[in-house]
Specification:
There is one protein chain. With about 190 residues, the chain is an alpha+beta fold. Helices cover about 35% and strands about 25% of the residues. It is built from five helices and ten strands; from the N terminus they run E-E-E-E-H-H-H-H-E-E-E-E-E-E-H. It starts with 6 loop residues before the first strand and ends with a helix. About 10% of the residues are buried.
Length: about 190
């Protein structure tokens, strides 16, 4: 590119006047002269690739895996009538739950993507190393990192505190009539 401003080559230290053809590195905000470019490109490590993932992709993959397994089980059980059995049977509730979760994660991911800007990064469906678990959404801001776990519970969330003076204090998250404390602990 043609430099807007004068600079100094970070490789050889030569002065590069404004409007000179050079290579500008956005990550380090430095310039290199054309003569130094081939040597410097060969010796510098390549930047890490940006890994993108779609919201709900792991839940959708699990749904597809379970659906295929259920259909295969029906086909083996019914033999030649397996195709008819698959067409007439309903999906198991545990299989339906995965597609419902995937749709919810995709909808929430689309909403979070609308918040993304130059100062807010949004990442979806990140694997937790060493486990089969994942983080549904990460929202990275200049001041905080937010972990968003997509769930659909009915009812208002509330905090219940048990114990205190004689017993240890225990904080519980209740949504509707359901205890979601273990969900928060898992996140």
């Amino acid at each position: 590119m043609r430099l807007r401003y004068a600079g100094v080559c970070r490789r050889c230290g030569s002065h590069l006047p404004a409007h000179t053809a050079a290579i500008y590195d956005k990550t380090t905000k430095t310039v290199r002269c054309i003569d130094c470019a081939p040597a410097s490109i060969a010796s510098e490590p390549l930047p890490a690739p940006v890994v993108t993932s779609r919201a709900g992709s792991s839940a959708r993959r699990e749904y597809e895996r379970r659906k295929t397994k259920d259909e295969e089980r029906l086909r083996q059980k019914w033999g030649r009538l397996g195709g008819v059995a698959v067409a007439l049977s309903d999906e198991r509730q545990s299989t339906k739950a995965w597609v419902t979760g995937a749709v919810g994660e995709e909808r929430l991911g689309a909403h979070l993507d609308g918040l993304a800007s130059s100062s807010i990064a949004v990442l979806h469906d990140r694997r937790i190393p060493g486990t089969r678990a994942n983080i549904d959404h990460l929202v990275i801001t200049p001041s905080r990192i937010w972990v968003v776990d997509a769930k659909r519970y009915k009812g208002r969330p509330r905090l219940e505190i048990e114990g205190g003076i004689l017993r240890p204090r225990v904080d519980k998250l209740i949504v509707g009539r359901r205890s979601c404390t273990t969900t928060v602990d898992g996140v």
